[in-house]
Design brief:
- This protein has 191 residues and is an alpha/beta fold.
- The chain is built from 7 helices and 7 strands.
- Strands 4-2-5-6-7 form a 5-stranded parallel sheet, with helices on both faces. A two-stranded parallel ribbon has the order 1-3.
- Strand 5, helix 4 and strand 6 form a beta-alpha-beta unit.
- Bound molecules: flavin mononucleotide.
- Flavin mononucleotide binds next to loops.
Length: 191
């Protein structure tokens, strides 16, 4: 069986970040799916400097970015777990995405938005979709907003709401569909 590599970018580096619990849940979920390999790409651990120029135009690549590029190149699709900050996405996430471009081309993106309110980060979803489209990625139509994140997880990471679990299952099935569909076609055509 073909394996699809679907890394998970954690877009929050905030102290005591709640989104880390969501990202762990997503990594566990994807890791349990047949035909999927995954890995957490934590922007906090990467500690990328502010983007002075895109990787392809630099001879002095800052530490971490080459590895990030390699992971994005290898990826069949990409999940971003992002909190909503002031109705947008965190600057640290945009900073990381801006370093690269061709790596994302024609790859499905699952954008999982997180907030402590009941709105689940829906406002940052549309603006991040615009960014992904500009980068040549394909944001999937399905949504997985995480509302009231501070109540959704127990301290050990267990999800308290069975409805969320079911929604997540349907969401990742949808992501898998797009992952497989686009991967098959990418293999048949030149980039
Ligand atoms: C700078 C900042 C701005 C925020 N703006 C929003 C917002 O626009 N909408 C919202 O629903 N929650 C907002 N929140 C609350 C976040 O949803 C909440 O802090 C959540 O835990 C963020 O994820 P994190 O813990 O991974 O940082 C904001 C939080 C911060 C720190």
């Amino acid at each position: 069986m073909e394996m699809f590599y679907i890394p998970v970018i954690l877009g929050s580096i905030r102290r005591d970040r709640e989104s880390a619990k969501v990202a762990s849940f997503v990594v566990d979920y994807l890791g349990g799916m047949n035909g999927v390999a995954t890995q957490l790409l934590d922007l906090k651990a990467m500690s990328l400097p502010m983007m002075e120029e895109r990787l392809r135009f630099r001879k002095d690549a800052p530490p971490g970015i080459v590895q990030f590029s390699t992971q994005m190149k290898r990826a069949n699709s990409i999940v971003i777990v992002t909190p909503e900050y002031n109705s947008g996405y965190p600057g640290v996430l945009k900073n990381a995405l801006d370093y690269l471009k061709d790596e994302y081309k024609r790859k499905p993106f699952g954008i999982v938005t997180v907030s402590s309110s009941t709105l689940g980060g829906m406002l940052c979803l549309s603006s991040l979709r615009e960014v992904v489209l500009h980068l040549g990625g394909v944001p999937i139509p399905a949504i997985l907003p995480v509302s009231r994140v501070q109540e959704l997880f127990l301290p050990d990471g267990t999800v308290t709401d069975p409805v969320f679990r079911r929604r997540a299952g349907a969401y990742f099935e949808e992501l898998f569909w797009f992952t497989e569909a686009l991967a098959v076609h990418r293999q048949k055509t030149t980039p």
